[in-house]
Design a protein that fits this description.
The protein has 529 residues and is an alpha/beta fold. Helix content is 36%, strand content 20%.
Length: 529
């Protein structure tokens, strides 16, 4: 016989009549409505402290937990519900006559519902200057214990941990003579275990001294939606978001129009939203297959969009667009002149939406005007049997930290283009070469196996050497040989920005001097695999 097993026949229980509920919550949202709803069904409510006072103030009769346990609250409230009169009432399996007989012998009355949300530990430790003692006092003990007891015994007990579920629970009780179905109780139990798991993980993260890279991590994400399929139709997929999402993040976006998002749409929107966040002046980004096919800044988003699109109009067909300004009617009219899959911006004027929504299959999304600080966020990638975690790639575009290594200095205009190109190169799949003229990309070479291939591809995309005359070039990593420099020379490139650090830097610098090309070393690489 296994541990905790029993030969006793189990009675079938589908609906449970809610006669007695224990309520102890930190979040009082919706509590008055819940209390009134339970009162209507004649439910006896047990409670403690602030929750009891709140319910009584709302006209809901309450029985004190101390009256049930015959024991006062003690240790400054640390011990209130940790008592057999409570946990016996929660854990007695209603399907077993022996359990019911035992609690009856000890005068314990079953509890059919637990409504608990926990001390606000996460919110407390986020406060500036919070002490360890303050954090510890916000580690809930009785709450998780009641939640776990009720969730374990979902065959006979309903457990509610989120105010967002109060309305549906009351509606089911109204339709079912004060009872809750087994399917509902099981679903509530699942939510409860998810809630306590996330709570414990938050405590662990706080207690762990290595907050950046602890010895163990547990990731908690909530499902946003199922997707039609993944990268390809034969792959199943779903979209999840972080438990806490800051305003301005892609996961906070709202879709205003168009078909549901695909897996690839979301990947491209992520790329588009990340790049557009690099610029303060009006900007436009055109994304295709997770790479920019065009990026530009200008005095207004219409000009920026036209220049970004014209960088590679063939590749731009069916792309994802992003802007860092609210879209007006004039810009909307430009957008629908070409075929795009999706457009994301801080917002859209009503007259712009009237224009854009004439395209039935155009997905329109807004993520708001705030741009979050990603410096504390980690970049996570799945590998076979594990994860790779790293810091986000910082800007690294401080001109004062860069070094001109050639005899020829870039002009002020070239410096502007170089810094712009460097920002774009950070978001292009390596090996990455970006050609820029007048603050707009004119050719992008992405994802090639050699740097010279990327260089030649970018020149081809730009339309050849004649079109590249006077442009600047950004490389996400150093030139291992001078062949890419020679390709730039043949294309009439006038300035180059790259990390430096090759054992052949001297050869590359010498070749740049001979070609009359100004070259800047950043000292920072921007690989993006």
């Amino acid at each position: 016989m296994g541990l905790g097993s029993s030969t006793e026949n189990l009675k079938e229980i589908k609906d449970v009549k809610i006669r007695r509920a224990l309520i102890s919550v930190s979040d009082k949202n919706g509590l008055d409505r819940l209390g009134q709803g339970l009162k209507k069904h004649g439910v006896e409510i047990l409670s403690t402290g602030g929750t009891a006072a709140y319910l009584e103030g709302a006209g809901v009769p309450v029985t004190s937990v101390s009256d049930v346990t015959k024991f006062p609250e003690m240790l400054e409230g640390r011990v209130k519900t940790l008592h057999p009169a409570i946990h016996g009432g929660l854990l007695a399996d209603r399907r077993k006559d022996s359990h019911l007989k035992q609690i009856d012998e000890h005068g314990i009355v079953p509890i059919d519902m637990v409504v608990v949300n926990l001390y606000p530990f996460q919110e407390t430790v986020k406060k500036e200057g919070v002490t360890m003692d303050e954090a510890i006092e916000n580690i809930d003990i009785g709450g998780p214990s009641m939640i776990r007891s009720a969730a374990k015994n979902f065959y006979g007990v309903a457990v509610i941990v989120s105010p967002s579920r109060y309305v549906e629970i009351l509606e089911e009780m109204d339709q079912n003579d004060g009872s809750l179905k087994l399917e509902t109780r099981k679903d509530l139990a699942k939510d409860a275990f998810e809630h306590t798991a996330a709570y414990d993980e938050a405590i662990y993260e706080y207690m762990e001294d290595d907050h950046e890279y602890p010895p163990m991590i547990k990731l908690v994400f909530e499902k946003v939606q199922d997707l039609r399929y993944g990268e390809n139709p034969h792959q199943k997929a779903a979209y999840y978001r972080d438990e806490i999402v800051m305003p301005g993040m892609l996961a906070s976006m709202q879709q205003l129009h168009g078909p549901e998002l695909s897996y690839n749409n979301i990947l491209d929107l992520e790329a588009a939203w990340r790049i557009i966040g690099e610029f303060m002046v009006p900007a436009s980004v055109v994304i295709k297959h997770n790479n920019p096919s065009g990026v530009a800044v200008a005095d207004n988003c219409i000009d920026a969009f036209e220049r970004a699109w014209n960088c590679d109009p063939v590749s731009a067909f069916g792309s994802v667009l992003s802007f860092n300004r609210i879209v007006d009617k004039a810009l909307a009219e430009k957008i629908i002149e070409n075929f795009s899959e999706a457009v994301i911006a801080p917002g859209f004027l009503e007259e712009a939406l009237e224009v854009l929504t004439t395209k039935k299959n155009l997905r329109i999304l807004t993520a708001g005007e705030e741009r979050p600080d990603h410096s504390s966020i980690k970049d996570i990638k799945r590998v076979d049997g594990g994860l790779l975690i790293q810091d986000m790639d910082p800007h690294g575009d401080n001109r004062e930290e860069m070094k001109v290594v050639t005899k020829l200095e870039p002009s002020d205009e070239q410096w502007e283009d170089l810094l712009f190109a460097w920002r774009v190169a950070k978001h292009v799949k390596s090996n990455a070469i970006v050609l820029v003229k007048n603050l707009a990309t004119i050719g992008i070479g992405a994802g090639q196996m050699s740097r010279v291939d990327s260089s030649e591809l970018s020149i081809k995309k730009a339309g050849g050497p004649d079109k590249c005359k006077g442009a600047v070039l950004a490389s996400d990593a150093f030139f291992p040989f001078k062949d890419a420099l020679e390709a730039a020379k043949a294309a009439n490139i006038k300035a180059i920005i790259q990390p430096g650090g090759s054992i052949r830097d001297d050869e590359v610098i010498e070749a740049a001097d001979e070609a009359g090309i100004a070259m800047v070393f950043t000292g920072m690489r921007h690989f993006r695999h």
